[in-house]
């Protein structure tokens, strides 16, 4: 069954005819408000809480795989609220079985047609992988598992000792994770059918801006792209 057909009634207007492009516009607009210090804090009022409680279900319109870094909360930097984003966070966005399973649930069961892999500048997880790459010493235990996952993504990035090498590795890791997920069982069929789009993006802590790293042409918002109001009956 198609994602749009599985979507809950209260988000049907969003998924029907707009899907991933429309959702990306909403995320872009929310990030613009965040970085210009004009957030609207949508879907965070008492009515939204009551609506979610009464519905006894969740119907987010996008999935986000972000880093566990405390400086990069997706709901804040996209200026969204309760029930809007299905968010999974892991150090360096490394997609182990738990992360992948959670994302499959978000796409398959919650019908989110856009999955954003959100890397960020100054990522300490990638920094640890860079150190391991340069020294040949990988940490033991759980940290070693995470570092090794990132090493797969950055080992071919040219290292000329420049200050922007870390940024280049962050980008490479983000794109690599997005590509991994496109081939993940439970996701690849939806990617191939066009029901799901997986896009890598990079958040700059300094500039507060989300930059999309995919090769799709920029999608410019139309006249109906304003963020919906906070009334519980509205679409996300």
From TrEMBL:
InterPro entries in UniProt: Carbonic_anhydrase, Carbonic_anhydrase_CS, Carbonic_anhydrase_sf
PROSITE patterns assigned: PROK_CO2_ANHYDRASE_1
EC number(s) reported in the record: 4.2.1.1
Keywords: Lyase, Zinc
Protein task: Catalyzes the reversible hydration of carbon dioxide to form bicarbonate.
Family (UniProt): Belongs to the beta-class carbonic anhydrase family.
Swiss-Prot/TrEMBL catalytic activity: hydrogencarbonate + H(+) = CO2 + H2O
Entry keyword annotation includes Coiled coil: no
Listed Polar residues bias regions: 227-236
Protein name: carbonic anhydrase
Region (Disordered): 214-236
């Amino acid at each position: 069954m198609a994602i749009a057909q599985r979507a809950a009634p209260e988000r049907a207007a969003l998924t029907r005819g707009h899907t991933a492009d429309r959702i990306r516009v909403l995320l872009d607009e929310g990030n613009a408000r965040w970085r210009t210090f004009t957030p609207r804090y949508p879907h965070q009022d008492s009515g939204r809480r009551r609506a979610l409680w009464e519905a006894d279900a969740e119907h987010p319109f996008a999935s986000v795989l972000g880093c566990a870094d405390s400086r990069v909360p997706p709901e804040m930097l996209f200026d969204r609220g309760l029930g809007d984003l299905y968010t999974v966070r892991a150090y360096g966005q490394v997609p182990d079985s738990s992360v992948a399973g959670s994302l499959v649930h978000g796409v398959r069961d919650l019908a989110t047609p856009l999955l954003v892999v959100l890397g960020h500048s100054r990522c300490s997880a990638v920094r640890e992988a860079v150190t391991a790459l340069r020294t040949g010493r990988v940490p033991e235990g759980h940290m070693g598992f995470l570092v090794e996952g990132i090493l797969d993504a950055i080992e071919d990035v040219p290292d000329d000792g420049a200050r922007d090498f870390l940024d280049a590795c962050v980008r490479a890791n983000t794109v690599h994770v997005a590509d991994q997920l496109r081939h993940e069982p439970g996701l690849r069929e939806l990617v191939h059918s066009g029901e799901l789009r997986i896009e890598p993006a990079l958040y700059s802590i300094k500039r507060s801006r989300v930059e999309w790293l995919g090769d799709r042409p920029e999608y410019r918002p139309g006249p109906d792209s304003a963020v919906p109001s906070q009334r519980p009956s509205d679409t996300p």
